[in-house]
Amino acid sequence: MKGTGPATVLYLLVRHELRLWASLWLWAARRTHDAAAGGSAFGYARGQGAMTAGFAFVCVVESVMMSVLLRDWPAVHHVVLVLDVYTVVIVVGLHAASVVRPHVLDPAAGTLRVRRGSHVDVRIPLERIASVRRELRTTHEPADGELALAVGSQTSVTVELTEPVAHVSFFGRRREVRVVRCHADDPGALVRAVERARAGDAVP
């Protein structure tokens, strides 16, 4: 999408929040988003579960404290309460989006789909993968041609490409990347599955 005017920004923010609500529904229904029937899903949200739960708890405590402080101002109290509850819902929705949108390896389509929540979705053709390896990193300096999708401040899988793929940012900025670093709950399983798919072997 071209341009980042007020209308475009508003559209992107509304679309993102709708995706979060859809993620909550999928999470409650124990379903995943766009997981190919013949593909394999690899989760990455486990590393942020404790942090998300802690943040949600802090938001709940803050809501209770504000309710006590504003008990003599009912109108203000109701507005703040609605905002606080909505904040908690958004926090849980962000985690739900990561749970229901796992990485997907689809050998039939010849792609590895690397995702993070509802705002990053990069399709990597298997024939463009030069190497894939398990590599734990806890620091990520911005670099041209590299995309780091850290979860809990870490990545555990590095994918190097022979040709760049496009990554579109939240606000529509497009750039080409040759190295993609992501996290997986079981990085070894993801690396082995990609290697088998590249070799033409069946992926369990």
Tally of DSSP helical segments: 4
Global outline:
elongated
Helix % is: 40-55%
Name the poorly predicted regions: none
Straight-line N-to-C gap: 37 Å
Derived from helix and strand composition plus strand pairing, the structural class reads alpha+beta
How many DSSP E strands? Answer: 8
Q: Average pLDDT value?
A: 88
Largest sheet: 4 strands, antiparallel
Widest sheet: strand ordering: 1-2-3-4
- SSE order: HEHHEEEEEEEH
Could you tell me the strand content as a percent range? 25-35%
| C-alpha Rg (nearest Å) | 19 Å
What does this structure look like?
- The chain is of the alpha+beta class and 204 residues long.
- Helix content is 41%, strand content 27%.
- It has a four-stranded antiparallel sheet with strand order 1-2-3-4, covered by helices on one side. A four-stranded mixed sheet has the order 5-7-8-6, covered by helices on one side.
- The chain is elongated and about 70 Å long.
- The protein starts with 5 loop residues before the first helix and ends in a 5-residue tail after the last helix.
- The mean pLDDT is 88.
Topology overview:
Elements: H1 6-28, E1 40-42, H2 49-69, H3 74-100, E2 103-106, E3 111-116, E4 120-125, E5 129-137, E6 146-149, E7 155-168, E8 174-182, H4 187-199
Helix pairs in contact: 1-3, 2-3
